[in-house]
Structures are given as structure tokens and as C-alpha cells.
Amino acid sequence: GAVVSQHPSRVICKSGTSVKIECRSLDFQATTMFWYRQFPKKSLMLMATSNEGSKATYEQGVEKDKFLINHASLTLSTLTVTSAHPEDSSFYICSASGWTSGSSYNEQFFGPGTRLTVL
Amino acid sequence: DAKTTQPTSMDCAEGRAANLPCNHSTISGNEYVYWYRQIHSQGPQYIIHGLKNNETNEMASLIITEDRKSSTLILPHATLRDTAVYYCIVRVDRDDKIIFGKGTRLHILP
């Protein structure tokens, strides 16, 4: 299957700082990218949907000014957690949707996740 | 909200077939059934999907009932590496956002 990468894989930061997480589709162009967060022993919760060149669509209850999403190209989306606090500590996962070589349909692939710890 | 219900957890002996059920009684005619799994501290991995016919690939088989209100994912020869949370999802097309339910935590026992 296609490859989606995230960077960094884990990050520890101080309370009040901002953290940027990158999501890249390595071998296909992602028309749509999705961001999820996951707390321990819980399911993934969709945060937002982003399309290249347009503003992200946030799910109800997700603060758009807190979680800034930029989808500047067909292979890169970034999530910035602004003024992070300990309650923002979580596992953040992105997925990318697009046509891959050899595929007859548009499929979604998930990144490996980024573990954020805010002290 | 997730449109599926799954058992919270299941156990399966290594080498045996693991059969994971999923109920999706409100599925629409144009919605597919997708299965993903998530191994601890990793991103979800696609397993298989289907509309109404049974499907098989190198990972698993998907059996969908004739009325499409339920399905079963079959891992034919479970190994310890199949220990994961398995999510059954219904969605219209491949661009549609994925809403995850609670999934089934599958434990493969040695």
C-alpha cells in the first residue's frame, strides 16, 4: 500500500509552546488529508478534514484556533498545536486520501502517528 | 457517530481462525463495509472492504450477510502479530471521512 509518514514520531514540549506535526504522502498525491487524535485505550477521534489549497473543516468541539491545519501541497499537511497544555497530550494520527499507482480507486492510508507529551 | 456495533474484546488461540462480528443494521445501499486494525501505538492499517459480495485478500476474508446488516471478518490462521484493535466501519466512498467506533480488542493467545 501507499506510504504516509509523520514527523516527528514523538515530541515532548513545555506548556505554552507550540508544536508542529507534519504529515506527508510519500508516493501519491493526497487530495484530502484527515487529522485524528487518540487518548490511551480510546478510539480515534476525527479532528478535521483538509483539502489542498483550502481551509480545513473542523469537527464539532475542535478549536480551530488551537489546532491550526495547513494543507499547502498535495503531499503535505501540517497540524500545529498552539499554546499546548498537558491536556493536549495525545497520539495524533493523520490519514491521506488519493489515487495511488496501480489502484483503481481512491483509498485512505494512515500515518504511524505522533505522540505528543506536554509537560 | 459510528454506525456499527462490535464486541468489546475477543480471544483466539494462535493458529486458529479468528472470526470478528460486526453489526451495521442501518447501512445504506451505497455504503461499503471497511475493516481496519490498529496495533498498539501505530496508525490504523487497512484490511479489507466490500459492498455486498464476500471478499478475500492476503490478509483476511470478509463475509457480508445477504441483508447487509452484519458482517464477519475472518483471519484464517491467527498469529500473535494479529493482536490489535479491529474496527468495522461503513462509509459511502473512499473520500468520506472515517468515523471510528470502539472496535474489538482481539487477543491472540499462545
Q: How would you describe this structure to a colleague?
A:
The complex is a heterodimer of chains A (119) and B (110). Chain A contains no helices and eleven strands. By secondary structure, chain A is an all-beta fold. In chain A, strands 2, 4, 5, 6, 9, 10 and 11 form a seven-stranded mixed β-sheet that branches. In chain A, strands 1-3-8-7 form a four-stranded antiparallel β-sheet, with no helix packed on it. In chain A, a hairpin with a 5-residue loop joins β5 (45-51) and β6. The termini of chain A are far apart. With 110 residues, chain B is an all-beta fold. In chain B, 0% of the residues lie in helices and 45% in strands. Chain B has strands at residues 9-13, 18-23, 32-38, 45-50, 55-56, 61-64, 70-75, 84-91, 104-109. Chain B is globular, with a radius of gyration of 13 Å. The termini of chain B are far apart. The mean pLDDT of chain B is 93.
Question: What does the secondary structure layout of this molecule look like, with pairings?
Answer:
The complex is a heterodimer of chains A (119) and B (110).
Chain A: E1 4-7, E2 10-13, E3 19-25, E4 29-38, E5 45-51, E6 57-58, E7 67-73, E8 76-81, E9 90-99, E10 106-110, E11 114-118
Parallel strand pairs in A: 2-11
Antiparallel strand pairs in A: 1-3, 3-8, 4-5, 4-9, 5-6, 7-8, 9-10, 9-11
Chain B: E1 9-13, E2 18-23, E3 32-38, E4 45-50, E5 55-56, E6 61-64, E7 70-75, E8 84-91, E9 104-109
Parallel strand pairs in B: 1-9
Antiparallel strand pairs in B: 2-7, 3-4, 3-8, 5-6, 6-7, 8-9
Structural class of chain B: mainly beta
SSE-based structural type of chain A: mainly beta
Low-confidence stretches of chain B: none
Morphology of chain A: globular
Alpha plus pi helix count of chain B: 0
Strand percentage of chain B lies at: over 45%
* Lateral strand order in the biggest sheet of chain B: 1-9-8-3-4
What percent of the residues of chain B sit in helical stretches (DSSP H or I)? under 10%
Q: State Rg of chain A.
A: 14 Å
Major beta sheet of chain A, specifics?
7 strands, mixed
Strand content of chain A: over 45%
* Largest interface by Cβ-Cβ < 8 Å: A-B, 26 and 20 residues
H/E series of chain A, N to C? EEEEEEEEEEE
Outline of chain B = globular
Report how far apart the termini of chain B are.
35 Å
Count of individual beta strands of chain A: 11
Q: For the CA atoms, what is the radius of gyration of chain B? A: 13 Å
Oligomer state equals heterodimer
